[in-house]
Amino acid sequence: MTMPALLRPSEILATMRGVGGWLEDSEAELLLAAAAWVTRGGGARTLVEIGSYQGRSTVVLGAALRALSPESRLYAIDPHQGTVGAADRRLSRGTPTFDAFCANIEGAGVARFVEPVRSLSYEVAWSRPIDLLFVDGLHDRLNVERDFRHFAPFLAPSAAVLFHDYASYYPGVVAFVDEIVAREGWEVAARAGSMIMVHRPEQQAAQPTPAQERVVSQVPL
Ligand SMILES: C[S@@+](CC[C@H](N)C(=O)[O-])C[C@H]1O[C@@H](n2cnc3c(N)ncnc32)[C@H](O)[C@@H]1O
């Protein structure tokens, strides 16, 4: 008998705690909730993670897809050179993380839902609609904005966008998120720890931007 892949949050969190990185339980829970939200209507969804490191957040999002939407995929973008921090504060250069990342997503049983993209976010040639974008690369204003803007034209009208480290220790993240909320029609949907999720209210979401229309007409769904 094949066992159904049930969503078991406490098991997912236990697996996550065994992976190096920087995600608290409450933040992981919000990632799970966001993944459940964007996959609720069924069909193949596209999730994008910027900044995977050793795969701590990747195993959480991958486990959500395994249980809720196995036809969906998580694109996990990271050059895996081991550089973390914020360019305007302190950058720490560690060891490359790709081998650990692969071992961790394999060990967590989520590798088949994850497409690793070994690149800087803004060098990825992207072309498909995105349902969930998780931004957790470098945490200075320039990099957060560059990560977001590179993918923003592809966000589906009802997409969820999550930023990690929305906190006083990374003022660039706070400044950028506050700006898109104040000026660009994004609304805070939820917060947990230093994770913040934003979305576009339904009315505005119903009006796709010209870029979204172009993308949707180009990509076979
Ligand atoms: C804070 S760590 C990510 C932590 C991870 N999400 C977790 O749950 O542990 C930041 C990662 O972002 C990656 N990174 C830095 N700049 C990037 C960029 N422009 N595009 C993609 N990844 C980037 C680094 O290589 C590093 O592995």
Structural key phrases:
Rossmann fold; binds S-adenosylmethionine; methyltransferase activity; 8 helices; methyltransferase; two-stranded antiparallel sheet; 7-stranded mixed β-sheet; 221 residues; Class I SAM-dependent methyltransferase; 21% strand; alpha/beta; SAM-dependent_MTases_sf; disordered C terminus; transferase
Folded structure, characterized:
With 221 residues, this protein is of the alpha/beta class. The chain has one domain: Rossmann fold (3-Layer(aba) Sandwich). The protein is built from 8 helices and 9 strands. The protein has helices at 9-17, 25-38, 56-68, 98-107, 141-151, 171-183, 202-205, 210-218; strands at residues 46-50, 73-77, 83-85, 91-93, 114-117, 130-135, 155-163, 187-192, 195-199. A 7-stranded mixed beta sheet has the order 5-2-1-6-7-9-8, sandwiched between helices. Strand 1 (46-50), helix 3 and strand 2 (73-77) form a beta-alpha-beta unit. Helix 1 packs across helix 2 and helix 1 (9-17) packs antiparallel against helix 3 (56-68). Bound molecules: S-adenosylmethionine (SAM). S-adenosylmethionine binds at residues 21-23, 50-53, 56-57, 77-81, 83-84, 97, 120-121, 136-138, 143, 147.
Q: Would you summarize the structure shown here?
A:
The protein has 221 residues and is an alpha/beta fold. It has helices spanning 9-17, 25-38, 56-68, 98-107, 141-151, 171-183, 202-205, 210-218, and strands spanning 46-50, 73-77, 83-85, 91-93, 114-117, 130-135, 155-163, 187-192, 195-199.
